[in-house]
Design brief:
This protein is an all-alpha fold. Helix content is 71%, strand content 1%. Strand 1 and strand 2 form a beta hairpin.
């Protein structure tokens, strides 16, 4: 089966794509994986539909012959070491409390990341449907958040928390960042795809941006800004046409103007303006106060020096009244030095390995650029919030590593073709 992935204004040769499954099984697999991604937007209760569905889907795919490949196995090894650190930390405790449940979630999310890597490596054409399903889920949860914030329907306040939109998530601080990757992909579509359907993309983009804004998550706002700059930088660096570069710059200016206009309109509502004024402060009271967020970071690093194996996944919050709100402190406390080293290694490989591939003109580069930009910005966000149980972060890791696997397939195919001609 020939797989074609939309890659922008120019067609890209299909060399190197792994042999695809038959037409019927390919469609069925893509439908199932697309549904799984869509369900990732519904996390009001745990276990969420995403986990329940994937818990059945992953064994099914493995049963019917999905191969992991070297890239997915390497990812699995790093995540195994990471979670082994959590197990060692738990074994040092007299009372493990709910830590086994916490670590079970960590292990499962790691498995989902490996699954996405292996599946994408085997079917590059699935990326388009994965991103469309992600957009669909993001739009649904954004609409829920918007409806809840403005109380358009009776009982809609269930989609808010502390007067902030949370959509179909438990927390506005997860809801907001979840929307960033589909926002970037829609922006990419406006820059490179068919202009005929740009109105539809603009409408979807407006919904996501409004939902993200109403989450009043400073982290989400900052992460969107940083990821947008990273994506534009990557596009400008890889674009060879001066004309297209000029268009990118013009579109960036227009996008900033449109976003500013939406912000101005939203701030006409008194409740929105008041919340924005409060949330726009760089440092909140709970950040800089005694035992505030930043003080807890320092305490966590100090404790890590005394406890190389960690304190246990939930102990930090129980002792200080709040979680770590820093993925590096969280890794040290919940997974020990071993888990910290594994997470650091995983992060470096994902950023460096994914960034290195951006220079190559491949069919999957648009998806890689958007995901890589969002992931790098999320790692910056991770300095002020825990992301070790964020489903969409593990999906992004799987996408980037899946593209790394596709690149390995591409180079192997080139090597085989070159050898056969000699």
């Amino acid at each position: 089966m020939s797989i074609v992935v939309d890659s922008g204004p120019a067609a890209v040769p299909e060399i190197g794509l792994p042999p695809g499954p038959t037409l019927s099984t390919s469609r069925l697999k893509r439908l199932l994986t697309g549904l799984a991604v869509f369900l990732g937007a519904f996390v009001i209760r745990e276990p969420a539909p995403y986990e329940i569905f994937l818990a059945g889907l992953i064994p099914l795919f493995l049963l019917f012959g999905m191969r992991l490949g070297k890239t997915a196995l390497s990812l699995a090894a790093l995540l195994l070491v990471f979670n082994s650190g959590g197990l060692l930390a738990m074994l040092t405790m007299d009372d493990v409390k709910n830590i086994p449940v916490y670590l079970s979630i960590s292990v499962f999310l790691a498995a989902t990341s490996v699954f996405w890597c292996a599946y994408i490596r085997s079917d590059a054409g699935s990326l388009r449907l994965i991103f469309r399903a992600y957009i669909a889920g993001a739009v649904v949860t954004s609409l829920a958040g918007i409806i809840g914030y403005f109380q358009v329907l009776p009982g809609a306040e269930a989609f808010t928390l502390y007067d902030r939109a949370r959509g179909l998530f438990q927390d506005p601080n997860v809801f907001g960042p979840f929307l960033i990757l589909p926002v970037l992909y829609l922006v990419y579509g406006l820059l490179y795809r068919n202009w005929v359907i740009s109105v539809g993309r603009l409408a979807l983009l407006a919904i996501l941006l409004l939902g993200l804004f109403l989450s009043f998550s400073r982290g989400a706002w900052g992460t969107l800004l940083i990821s947008s700059l990273i994506m534009y930088g990557a596009l400008l660096a890889t674009e060879k046409s001066a004309t297209v570069k000029t268009r990118l710059i013009v579109m960036a200016v227009l996008g900033i103007a449109a976003t500013t206009l939406v912000l101005v309109v939203a701030l006409q509502f008194d409740a929105v303006a008041e919340m924005f004024d409060e949330r726009a402060k760089l440092v909140q009271q709970y950040d800089g106060s005694h035992l505030g967020r930043f003080s807890r970071h320092l305490i966590g690093f100090e404790w890590a020096l005394e406890n190389p194996l960690g304190n246990g996944a939930l102990e930090f919050g129980l002792k200080l009244g709040e979680d770590t709100h820093n993925i590096w402190v969280k890794a040290l406390m919940a997974y020990g030095w071993l888990g910290f080293a594994a997470w650091l290694t995983l992060t470096i490989i994902t950023i460096v390995g994914g960034g290195r591939l951006i220079q190559y003109d491949r069919p999957w580069r648009p998806y890689l650029i958007c995901t890589w930009a969002a992931f790098v910005a999320h790692i910056g966000l991770a300095w002020v919030i825990d992301i070790d149980h964020w489903r969409h972060v593990y999906l992004m890791i799987g996408i980037i590593w899946g593209c790394m696997g596709l690149e390995a397939n591409w180079k192997n195919e080139l090597s085989l073709r070159t050898t056969s001609r000699e």
